[in-house]
UniProtKB/TrEMBL annotation:
InterPro entries: Flagellar_regulator_Flk. Residues 1-27 are annotated as: Disordered. The keyword Coiled coil does not apply. It comes from Salmonella typhi. Keywords: Cell projection, Cilium, Flagellum. This is Flagella biosynthesis regulator Flk. GO terms for biological process: regulation of gene expression. GO terms for cellular component: membrane.
């Protein structure tokens, strides 16, 4: 068998596989165009820059940042970017649903209706804890007027709003938490308002100040831990758990997440457990105050 004209003859078994050689070639113009189009769509839905997306994709594929993408990398790169785009599109759709829902919360007593509904139906206390399908369901029910809207209730005279000094203290704690987690101050305040159950335009009652301060400080402390557990969560509380509270939170964690005291908690689980502690304490105080409100003068 004669060698191809212009190419040196090579002994059997020592020649390069044409397919292997092609796979070591740089990305073709067509391949690069496909990837660039995916990246363009991705950065239009996120706050990422093009270089950041390229670097992230290379990291996922185990390619050094300063190494070029080769033709053989193309299938995995395309799949990686397609998956990232799918997540970004879903997040974008979720933000739109949440935006529409947030606008409706300011109408009438919708906020209380939604708060009651998600607590009863999903066992959650904040919109940020709901799945995309649950958020869509809440929005649809609210738009169609199918949620039971409670009548505004007169608050007891003891429910004075936060004093300026108390509000300033909480704001400082919010700023520290935002710096530790990267979450915006606005979103943290929104979570606090939802957790407190106040309606749009209302102020947080002063009786919740201590519980909110404990909630913020605990979130900041736990955000710095790489492997938070129920034990470290308990230690992070400035207002320690009473024995009955500790028993209740362990039972809740076991029933809801099937976790033990030494199980490492996710960020979402940490926030949900802190929310649960906050709500139990607020409800307990309300129960303690209620008999006093019906005593004759």
């Amino acid at each position: 068998m004669h060698p191809i004209s212009g190419a040196p003859a090579q002994p059997p078994g020592e020649g390069r596989n044409p397919l292997s050689a092609a796979s070591e070639q740089p990305l073709s113009m067509q391949q690069r165009t496909v990837l660039e189009r995916l990246i363009t769509r991705l950065i239009s839905l996120t706050q990422q820059q093009s270089a950041e997306v390229w670097a992230g994709m290379k990291h996922d594929l185990g390619i050094k940042n300063d190494a070029p993408l080769l033709s053989r990398h193309f299938p995995a790169a395309e799949q990686n970017l397609t998956q990232r785009l799918g997540v970004a599109q879903q997040n974008h759709a979720n933000r739109q649903v949440l935006s529409q829902l947030t606008e409706l919360l300011g109408v009438g007593n919708n906020r209380q209706a939604v708060s009651d509904f998600i607590r009863q139906q999903y066992g959650q206390t904040a919109l940020s804890q709901l799945t995309p399908d649950q958020l869509k369901n809440v929005l649809t029910l609210l738009q169609q007027g199918q949620l039971s809207i409670p009548q505004p209730q007169q608050r007891p005279a003891t429910d004075r709003p936060l004093l300026p000094a108390e509000h300033n203290t909480l704001n400082q704690l919010v700023t520290k938490l935002a710096a530790a987690t990267g979450e915006s101050n606005k979103l943290i305040w929104q979570s606090m308002l939802e957790l407190s159950g106040v309606k749009s335009g209302e102020l947080i009652p002063a009786k919740q100040f201590t519980h909110l301060a404990t909630w913020l400080q605990a979130r900041q402390t736990l955000s710095l831990q790489h492997a938070p557990t129920l034990h470290t969560l308990q230690a992070a509380l400035k207002q320690p758990l009473e024995p009955d509270e500790l028993t209740a939170i362990k039972e809740y964690a076991q029933h809801t997440y099937q976790i033990q005291p030494q199980t490492v908690l996710t960020t979402a689980q940490v926030q949900d457990l802190l929310n649960h502690i906050f709500l139990r304490r607020v409800e307990r105080e309300a129960d303690e105050l209620e008999p006093l409100s019906i005593q004759p003068i």
